[in-house]
Amino acid sequence: MATAREIMTPDVTCVGEGESLRDAARKMADLGVGSMPICGQDNRLKGMLTDRDIVIKALAEGRDPATVTAGELAQGKPVTIGADDDAAEVLRTMGQHQVRRLPVIDGHDLVGIVAVADVARALPDKPVGDLIDAISES
C-alpha cells in the first residue's frame, strides 16, 4: 500500500507564525490554496491556517488582518501523519479528526501535505467514500 510520502504534495510553503493574516491570505491566493501550515522560527509545525479561519476567527470578529498573526490562530497540537504511514492510516486519521488535509512529518520536519484527493487516487472507492462521510459529519 502507498505511503503518505508517496501520495503527498511535497515542497509545502508555510506561513510564519509571526506573519499577518493579510500576508497569509495573499500567499494562499498566490498559491491557489485554502490552507497552509503555520511554521515557527524553529521551522517546526505550529498549526494549520485555513481561509475559513481567517474569515471566522478574525474578519467576522472585527479583528484587523494586518495586525493579527497566523500564530494567534494556531490552536493546540496540529494533527499530522508520519511520512512512512500507509494510506489506510492516513484515511483513519482524517476520519477520526474530521480533516481534509494532513501535514506530513518526517521526524520533526514538515515534508508535505496529503489531501483527500491524494488518498482518493491511492485507494479504492469504498474507503474513500467512507472517509468523505466521516469528515462531513457535524
Give a quick precis of the structure.
The chain is an alpha/beta fold and 138 residues long. The chain has seven helices and seven strands, in the order H-E-E-H-E-E-H-H-E-H-E-E-H-H.
What is this structure's SSE topology?
Layout: H1 4-7, E1 9-10, E2 15-16, H2 21-31, E3 35-39, E4 45-50, H3 51-57, H4 70-73, E5 81-82, H5 87-97, E6 101-106, E7 109-115, H6 116-122, H7 125-136
Parallel strand pairs: 2-3, 5-6
Antiparallel strand pairs: 1-7, 3-4, 6-7
What this model shows, in words?
The chain has 138 residues and is an alpha/beta fold. It has one domain: CBS-domain, CATH 3.10.580. The chain is built from 7 helices and 7 strands, in the order αββαββααβαββαα. The strands form 2 sheets. Strands 1-7-6-5 form a 4-stranded mixed beta sheet. It has a 3-stranded mixed beta sheet with strand order 2-3-4. A hairpin with a 5-residue loop joins strand 3 and strand 4. Helix 5 runs parallel beside helix 7. The chain starts with a helix and ends with a helix. The mean pLDDT is 88.
Keywords:
138 residues; alpha/beta; 41% helix
Alpha-carbon Rg, integer? 15 Å
Mean pLDDT: 88
Shape: globular
CATH C-level class: Alpha Beta
* Largest β sheet strand count, sense and barrel closure: 4 strands, mixed
Provide the spatial order of strands within the biggest beta sheet: 1-7-6-5
How many distinct beta strands?
7
Number of domains: 1
The fold-level CATH name is CBS-domain
Low-confidence stretches: none
- Quote the beta fraction: 15-25%
At CATH's second level, what is the architecture?
A: Roll
Order of helices and strands, N to C?
Answer: HEEHEEHHEHEEHH
